[in-house]
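User: Fold both of these, please.

Assistant: Here is the first one.
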Amino acid sequence: MLDLKMIRTQPEILDQALVKRGKEPVSKEILDLDAHHRASLTELQNCQTRRNALAKEFGEAKRKGEDTTALSAESDQLKTAIAQRETEVETYGKELQNILDILPNLPANDVPHGKDESENKILRTEGTLPQFSFTPKSHFELGEMLGLMDFERATKLSGARFVVLYGNLARLERALSAFMIDIHTRELGYKEVYPPLMVLEKTAYGTSHLPKTREDMFQTTQGLWLIPTSEVALTSLVADEILNEENLPLRFTAYTPCFRAEAGAAGKDTRGMIRQHQFGKVELVSITTPEQSVAEHERMTKAAETILQRLELPYQVVELCTGDLGFAAEKTYDFNVWLPSQNTYREISSCSRCSDFQARRMNSRYRPQGNSNDSKSPLQFVHTLNGSGLAVGRTLVAIMENYQEANGSIRIPKALQTYMAGVEIIGKED
């Protein structure tokens, strides 16, 4: 959530940022609602102050035996006025909050300007593209040929955009998650977490997934929301808490299933595992100070990149332009992995810096170093960051396609072979 005080004093910054994101300016509407809300609140407080004074005058008049007719009439008028002002305050407040809830974060100053993903900036391309003496097959063709990837039975069980994996492909999915978690925890300083897969509405709101992406999330009949990413739970671990600066940054990682309705994906990636309602992902989350935030973003990006390098997968690092930034992000790097069957790079990870945007919604703050024992010292909002380290299903897809052989078998990257109990090639199973 954006700072309303900033909007009041520098509305042009908000409007300029919205234009960069391809959206209409709204500062005038916000300032008008804010002015009405504050005016109604002032009038309400004045009425309440007068009501309290009037109560004393009424008591004093009764004690002296004086006529209280005028005071009673004024009291009735105040009751009506207070009720009206309370309605105004609530109405203006809700309208103002509804607008603030759907305002995206402000892009960082160094984010390239652009209208959509076509204007993202490729920072570098890494790895060597595989050379085949045959026409490379798609992952779903390979998986079905091997008898280890079953979309037909998944549809029977759950409908479209699900898959059943068998045998060594199921083992490869499990191996990838363990490999990624081990790298992030043993080498890169992240703390492993196993969080709930369902969260309260206020939790999803705190990380700005609600109300913005409501249509892309699944909700249970009890009102809980299935996580679209474990970022929701990991970031919210510090919601409504006051941290000490000396304990920052906090770094969390988790492997979880994730659930997305893919509401806006009609007709996109309808075959295969690229875009599913349920998928596994290893998430990275950092909670830090404003001063550490930029360096932490670069560190997180390298952590995600480490996985791609160890698996020897070709990839690109892309800086998103203003028109393609996620709702909560002020700056994002994407990793796109090479898929031979599509002859292009596809997204496999995003690492985003969210400034204090989520922290304001979660009310997550810290006490600056040296003031940890001073309960009156000024508090500041933390900065939050999140990234995929990596999307497990898409990594499996990339391995299948880049490591395929002419007979449809799939070589296992050296880094994963110990996680596969020595299996070096996935072939057709009985």
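And the second sequence with its predicted structure:
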Amino acid sequence: MKDLFSIDGKVALVTGGSRGIGLMIARGFVEAGAKTYISSRKADVCDAVAAELSGAGTCVSIPADLGSEAGCRYLADEIAKREPKLHILVNNAGATWGAPLAEYPDEAFEKVMNLNVKGVFHLTRFLIPQLEGAASDADPARVINIGSIDGLQVPGLETFAYSSSKAAVHHLTRVLAHRLSDRRITVNAIAPGPFESKMMAETLRRGGDAIRASNPLGRIGVPEDMAGAAIFLSSKAGAYITGAVIPVDGGISTRHG
């Protein structure tokens, strides 16, 4: 029972791992003993973060732009060159776009859906051989997709493409969970609420007090909340869970239909 939540010795990839939610998860994985690869579009930032996290364990940078099928193929190939087994894939890389309804550009949907939805789909399918290599009946390989509570409820902001993309991620999670179950790969999603991150910084600056007041637990999420959920899903404790969308939001999503 003492090893129920252990991921020590596992190999993980966290996309968008140089900041925000991805960094919270990557740091948690490294400190928990997993060899962790991180990827992000900006090579200098990705390299610097990997070097910093390596002070607590093993973290490797592989910069990549996952907004295209070719970029997903590149990252999958780079992982395959280094690792025959990938125990954990965290699909976190994402983008958002806010604009009024009458002015909302078509390019917003193209950019956001390409990265947030198609990127998850392509990278997962390209890494199936490595995930299968790590999988066993008792301890399946894990895919964790990062959705959002904005995909569970109507958001207050005019982020039409983002909220639509996250709802799509949640359903893609369920579809992939069914398709990959016979390969001993579980697929789940985490739907974060408000956390301190670059993407949320302006929202929290303008309305942080109201967000806290609307949260049943009365606070903004901290890195340990996100790392804990990801480690749980990646450990033996989460081995019998697949197709789930787990809100990590302090209860905010329970207050809306």
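The domain at 11-252 is CATH 3.40.50.720 (Rossmann fold).
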